[in-house]
Amino acid sequence: MAVLRVRLFLWFIVLLAAVAVAALWMLREHGLVSDRQPGRLETAIARRLVVLSIPASARKVTNPLSGNDEAWRDGMEHFQEHCATCHGRAGRADSAFAKKMYPPVPDLADPAIQRMSDGALFAIIQNGVRWTGMPAFRSEHSAEETWKLVAFIRRVPTLSPADLRPIASHETHEHDAPAAPGAIAMDGTTFTPGEVHVTLGETVTWTNKDPFPHNVTSSAARMHSPDIDPDGTWSFTPTRAGRFEYQCTLHPGMKGVLVVEDKGAPGRER
Ligand code: CU1
Fold it and tell me: Do 191 and 85 lie in a common domain?
């Protein structure tokens, strides 16, 4: 018995040393850059560890809103506000950040994610995942809101563009007066609408609906906003006609187009 134990212990040490050597080798080969894709083994082990870290009792809980066919819609609204920045508007990890983080942001339609139980998804949203970019939302999302998010995650694999669209129109209804032609929302790290046409002399107003700052920058249009805080607005009256691409310098990939038409000189705007 004792011999067996010593043997097991020795094997354990050998295994540990092998892991350490492999880790060191990887560090020297690739450094700690974050825009690499982890290998399949690493992904599988990490996902397994995440699930194992959730108490079995919590994992077994099923979504109390599973009978509610509309819960995912509320979840989607919430998702756009808090999660889309990293997870993408449709949860498909197509945001500007997704592939540049380590571990990368998972595609929520991935079978490996969909196989997780309701309770596991709930726990991940509430508690976050250490050593990843996933924050703990416990203090901001009530249990009900979190279950709605879980309902939305279940919907991700079959989500259609039409499912996503109503929210944009619905949101402008809820939060604001009817959208003026020169009104642009900054929502989910996206300029909406992405392309806006105005006439020279008209004022354009950006409203930040995200919980973090954005700006509006285009040197061609001589347009340089300060960082616009959540719920803040910024207005600009173009002084020259043309088609201007602009962006938020805080979020590479967050881009929009402003077309300023000079009605006095038709033909020039195109
Ligand atoms: Cu931004």
Answer: no
Considering the domain boundaries, does residue 216 fall inside one? yes
* 134 and 212 housed in the same domain: no
**Per-residue pLDDT at 118 exceeds 90:** yes
Residue 171 has pLDDT above 90, yes or no: no
pLDDT at position 91 over 80: yes
How far is ligand 1, taken at its centre, from the CA of residue 11, in Å? Answer: 52
- Residues with beta carbon < 5 A to ion ligand 1? 214, 248, 250-251, 254
63 alpha carbon – ligand 1 mean position (Å): 34
CB within 8 A of 117, min separation 6: which ones? 59, 60, 61, 62
The rounded Å distance from CA 221 to ligand 1 centre is: 18
Same domain flag for 102 and 189: no
Q: Average pLDDT of the chain?
A: 86
Q: For residue 7, what pLDDT band results from cuts at 50, 70 and 90?
A: confident
